[in-house]
Specification:
InterPro entries: 5peptide_repeat (IPR001646). This protein has 219 residues and is mainly beta. The chain has one domain: E3 ubiquitin-protein ligase SopA (Pectate Lyase C-like, 3 Solenoid). Strands 1, 2, 3, 4, 5, 8, 9, 11, 13, 15, 17, 19 and 21 form a 13-stranded parallel beta sheet that branches. A hairpin with a 2-residue loop joins strand 6 and strand 7. It is elongated, with a radius of gyration of 18 Å. The two termini are 33 Å apart.
Amino acid sequence: MVTSAPRPPKLSLGDLIQGYLGDIDPEEFLEGMEFTDLNLAEADATQATFLDCRWSNVNFGDAEAPIDLTGARISGTEITDCRADTWTMSRGNLLHTAISGTRIGAGVVYDSVWEKVRFTNCRISYLNLRESKLTDVEFRDCKIDEIDLDRAKVSRVAFPGSSVGVFQCEGATLGNVDIRGLEPHRISGVHSLRGATIDDTQLMLFAELFASELGITVE
């Protein structure tokens, strides 16, 4: 059986209008705008929609004062060289979006829907995707300290050239999830790896974890 690769996002960004901090409000619909060199600390974008936009060199706020993107919808958007000490976007939608060169401290993005999303060369400390639905998501050349996919539904997700320190998937439903090359020092929810693809080297590395999960004693 061949593992299906994630389908890439489709972006079509034409001439964009310069966006400003004052444009961002709860439930606002913003289309075709470019946000550059902004500090969005304490901004309120709950349930806002960003369609066909570009974000570059934007600070999404400090850990104590992040922008609130709860329930927001970001689609057809490019995010480049940004920073988020805390990325607060739980119950949000991330669709056809490309994120590159971005640093995320804590990603509070549980109970979200992500479709056709690509992260490239990003640094992520912790990504909380519990109870989320991920389809066609790729983490390429990223460094992730911990990713939490507990009780998530995950399909066509891959991590080419990336590293993950802790991989949590307790109660997750996986399909065509390619984790080849990853060498996490801890996996939580080994029994939920059904539907994932690993390589021969990982099979040896994870042997002790698999045996422990199955109650097998190796002497």
